[in-house]
């Protein structure tokens, strides 16, 4: 995957239900650091978003991945992630 360029993907809904506002799509943002992911999480929660996956590593996506998942006040899914070159050195 190219992590230095925008990527648009389309997938089937994972739950077998019809596509809708919060099913079948989400928006993802690429951060530069874990601190940016954490700050986005805190700011979003303070502004009406709800948590859908706290910030942290998700080895299922790969060792360099660190991210979080939220729902905006309208129910849209939002992901913010960073791909670290060496997650062992991350703060």
UniProtKB/TrEMBL annotation:
Region (Disordered): 1-23
Organism: Fodinicurvata halophila
Protein name, UniProt field: VOC family protein
Alphabetical list of Pfam families matching this protein: Glyoxalase
Domain of life where this protein originates: Bacteria
Comp. bias regions, Basic and acidic residues: 1-15
Source species taxonomy: Bacteria, Pseudomonadati, Pseudomonadota, Alphaproteobacteria, Rhodospirillales
Domain Glyoxalase/fosfomycin resistance/dioxygenase per the UniProt entry, residue ranges: 16-80
């Amino acid at each position: 995957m190219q992590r230095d360029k925008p990527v648009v993907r389309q997938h089937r809904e994972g739950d077998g239900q019809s596509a809708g506002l919060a099913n079948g799509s989400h928006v993802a943002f690429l951060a530069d650091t874990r601190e940016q992911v954490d700050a986005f999480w805190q700011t979003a929660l303070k502004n009406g978003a709800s948590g859908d996956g706290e910030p942290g590593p998700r080895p299922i996506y790969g060792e360099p991945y660190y991210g979080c998942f939220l729902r905006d006040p309208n129910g849209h899914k939002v992901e913010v992630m960073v791909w670290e070159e060496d997650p062992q050195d991350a703060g």
